[in-house]
Write a structure and sequence with these properties.
- The chain is of the alpha+beta class.
- The chain folds into 3 domains: 139 residues, Creatine Amidinohydrolase, Chain A, domain 1 (3-Layer(aba) Sandwich); 140 residues, Creatinase/prolidase N-terminal domain (Creatine Amidinohydrolase, Chain A, domain 1), CATH 3.40.350; 285 residues, Creatinase/methionine aminopeptidase superfamily (Creatine Amidinohydrolase, Alpha-Beta Complex).
- It contains 17 helices and 28 strands.
- The strands form 8 sheets. The chain has a 6-stranded mixed sheet, sandwiched between helices. A 6-stranded mixed sheet has the order 12-11-10-8-13-14. Strands 21-28-27-24 form a 4-stranded antiparallel sheet.
- α8 links the parallel β11 and β12.
- α12 packs across α13 and α14 packs antiparallel against α15.
- The protein starts with a helix and ends in a 7-residue tail after the last helix.
- The model has no long low-confidence stretch (mean pLDDT 95).
Amino acid sequence: MNKYLERIESLRALMRARSWDAVVVRGSDPHQSEYPCQRYKRVEWLSGFTGEAADMLVTLDHAGLWTDSRYFIQALQQLEGSGVQLHKTRVPGAQSIEQWIAQNLDSDSVVAIDSLCNSAAQAAELERECSVCPVPDLLSLLWEDRPMLPQTPFFCIESGESRESKIDWLRSQMDGHNCSWMLVSALDQIAWLLNVRASDIEYNPLLISYLLVGMDEVRFYALKQEIEDEDSRLCIAELQAQGIDVLPYTLVELDLAGISQERVWVDPETLNAELYKHLSCPLYEAPCPIEARKAIKNGFELRSMEQCHIQDGLAMERFLYWIETSLAEGRSISEWEASVKLDQLRAQASDYLYESFETISAYGADAALPHFVTPRQNSALLQSEGLYLCDSGGQYLSGTTDITRTVPLGPCTRERAEDYTLVLKAHINLALAVFPSGTPGCRVDAAARLPLWKTLRDFGHGTGHGVGFFLGVHEGPAQIRQNLSPAPLLAGMVFSNEPALYREGSHGIRHENLMVVEEAGENEFGHFLRFRELTLCHFDTSILDASLLTKEEIDWLNSYNNRVFRTLGPLLDERTAAWLEVKTAPICLE
């Protein structure tokens, strides 16, 4: 029997013993993180699905997995034989887990949840449809070899603003809402506020912790085991010298239970249901203000990110040169070998730590899966024809990067060349956008999609996401996507620009840069913003159909490629620089 089917049947046996009608398994952790550590990869353990965004619902006669269009093909492949049915999200007519429960279960049905890994907001939404039974660490009853919580060395960083200044600002926000305490649960918010980083979660410089900020004290619940490394000791000493108590991670529940009269600010979207139920004090429930403030990078952060993108660009150009020359020499390169080589080239930078997410190294039809997982063994070999897509990024002490380049490795069909050109046209259209300050990302999104829509093409994921400063590669609150959201685009925010196109069984194309929102000018019509590229790596023009581009678009492309060469050329070896000069030669409107 399929091992995942066995695990689901074991869960059903537990459900019968506990009189549960259903179990909801979220793909997150007690902090509502996008990327959980190994201990909280419960959807993967239960179903075999390895995508980053998925939730599950298991009843006595149905098992479903909910995920978005980035993972539809992957989910169908990985769920085969498990008895788990794919439920598509973010598509017309999509049904949420709560809606499915409302339509398929009786209103008095008992639905068990892991109260640590469901947010207070998620639990409240479920309670409107059924009777919720909260069980902390629910799957620990079945998952015998479940990994423990990690505690990697943590260290203090320079961010251009002291933690004292950030805490003073947060206290002013609390005072404005008559709050004596604020409980911060989101890991990237804690890392930003305290100027602390670690590696508790793969690809993310985060420390699994809680933070309780009072008007006169700060409690940092971070310790899972005895501290043995020197970096952590030094960081703890620095925090303690500034009046921040560093405490055991599990102590937060007891301390929260001890607050009875004072008002506490909590964010129900990030606070888990387990801690929420232990709060007996007056609550102010609202989004944590840290999320919006950390998205606006200060001068130090932007200058640092500009420098790390130079290092990242050098690695990318060396990588693309290596691929082209290796194939020309008849050398065999697999998708996995290419991803390893890119990481090795990034590691040549002195402040590089590790990848900012798992590299997507995809040739040909593999690139039609937006989040293709490159196999370590038996991955496809790159050929001197068709398209190769590489989506990758790095975590540097000076910033976080995320870049996708789709490159022709040789002759391409007319369809592929046209798709390639139209996606690049979409990218340039967004890069050229000018818009009023405060415009939500959902309105700017159309600038990228219009060139594709005009030819009856589209893609199913967002066009742009926020990126942190040496933090998560995905950052809110604003995004550039079709989903309606009031979160505004503001000067100092950093976003990706990654329109795409996927043809299942044939090819996938994505062109991605990171860009910062900056001032465009102010007049009697208002205050306007625009984008400026941070990423430095050329766009291959060898298969472009210039007839599909306007003069303005060609001018942008020539200017960008020229800046890439002028910036990176002098820092590359002679052969790579000469190759890059050819690659960045200007094209003309035909």
